[in-house]
Amino acid sequence: MENLTFPPDFLWGVSTSAFQIEGATDADGRGQSIWDTFTADQGQIVADDHYHRYPEDVALMADLGVGAYRMSFAWPRIQPNGGGAPNPRGLDFYDRLLDAVCAAGISPAGTVYHWDLPQALEDTGGWLARDTAARFADYAAILGERFADRVRMWIPINEPMVTTVYGYAIGEYAPGRTLLLGAVPTAHHQHLAHGLATQALRAAGAESIGTANHHSPVWAAGDGEGDRAAATWLDALLNRLFADPVLLGRYPDEMHEHLPEGFDGDLPVIAQPLDFYGVNYYEPQGAAAPGEGNPLPFELRPIEGYPRTTNDSPIVPDGLRELLVGFRERYGEALPPVYITENGCSFDGVHDPERIEFLKGHLAAVRAAMSAGVDVRGYFVWSLLDNFEWSKGYAPRFGLVQVDYETQRRTPKDSFAWYRKLVRK
């Protein structure tokens, strides 16, 4: 760990999300989400039963020694139909959870939305509908008024890129739409929701508000002009579409024809000043010139020549350094302090040397970016627990803690012990 020396006030954390760990999908008046609908053929998603077992999970975090816990609130548990008065039993659950986290000396970092849109809102258009942004602001105000006294950091929307691309463009995630570039308006409506929610949270007394955006360096498959143009376009779709509006108050030129009419009128609301910028990093993306018949201006190409996780992701730690340094160069003084709000990998077993090497490599990349002038203030491992990994079910194992899904027994992995030693240095 000699090369992993960080400032004394560097914030170490772990991350989870509500749908992936809570279970109790029929408890306390919780409503139906788009993910309940999308996974209906799998039966009830019990996940890690964190709803009932949160005291054990908080004890694990206390043993780990992290300073912060990034969790998410389940919108359907707070507003079962996506609007109206809050569900008191849902609020009570998060009161209990946040009180336990704070009592353990850990600072909560609250994500307002991690993809579990109430099904009732999807039925009226979901993120294709501008009104969903207004409903989201109402929901954020409820959370702010109830929990701003305990939540240290707020993230309105987790990874809007994933909702747009995987949920509405290609249909791999809920709600399973296949609109291709017709999905771009969902990015704008999520941005508007972010801006309105940021205003609502600040009005309720929230002190630190930022983002958690999924970002990937985009590498051209070759040196030809077509491949380079494809990489530029994919970078606009995956990265600049989601960073430029909140940091610079504008959209990349490539996106203008795909955005809703009058989008520029919303940009002052979208570009609210941020206290931090969250980066979720897993892997680079490759792009090549599109072949005949491809309706998109790029083709995806796999990143070859690197070891891979059990989730088939290439392990490229230096991609994180490249990304962070590139952001500092692109956004300059517009880039607030950065937190790595997610970074992790899927490997099997309690003895997981591959995960330890993954974390070492990526933390060394963070340290290199800091040495190059990037103001990185903290790092959150994804994830505390093995969990329900969206469309891939329970197979990928991202946790520092193994979960036996039949017995719900928690077993800290070797990587848990390694991370505990690092954060307690």
Descriptors for this entry?
425 residues, alpha/beta, TIM Barrel, eight-stranded parallel beta sheet, three-stranded mixed beta sheet, 13 strands, globular, polysaccharide degradation, Glyco_hydro_1_beta-glucosidase, GH
User: What's the overall average pLDDT, rounded?
Assistant: 97
Give the class-level CATH name.
Alpha Beta
Radius of gyration, in angstroms, nearest whole number: 20 Å
Kindly report the CATH topology.
TIM Barrel
Report the count of strand segments: 13
Number of helices: 14
The rounded distance between the terminal residues' Cα atoms is 10 Å
CATH-assigned homologous superfamily:
Glycosidases
* Main sheet characteristics: 8 strands, parallel
Beta-strand share of residues: 5-15%
Q: Strands across the major sheet, in which order?
A: 4-3-2-1-11-10-7-5
Overall form: globular
Q: How does the helix and strand content classify structurally? A: alpha/beta
Number of domains: 1
Order of SSEs, N→C? EHHHEHHEHHEHHEEHHEEEHEHEEEH
Give the helix level as a range of percent: 25-40%
Question: Which stretches of 5+ consecutive residues score pLDDT under 50?
Answer: none
CATH second-level architecture: Alpha-Beta Barrel
Structural summary, described in words:
- The strands form three sheets. An eight-stranded parallel β-sheet has the order 4-3-2-1-11-10-7-5.
- It is an alpha/beta fold and 425 residues long.
- It has one domain: Alpha-Beta Barrel (TIM Barrel), CATH 3.20.20.
- A hairpin with a 6-residue loop joins strand 12 and strand 13.
- Helix 12 packs parallel to helix 13.
- It is built from 14 helices and 13 strands.
- The mean pLDDT is 97.
- It comes from Amycolatopsis rhizosphaerae.
- One of its GO terms (cellular component) is cytosol.
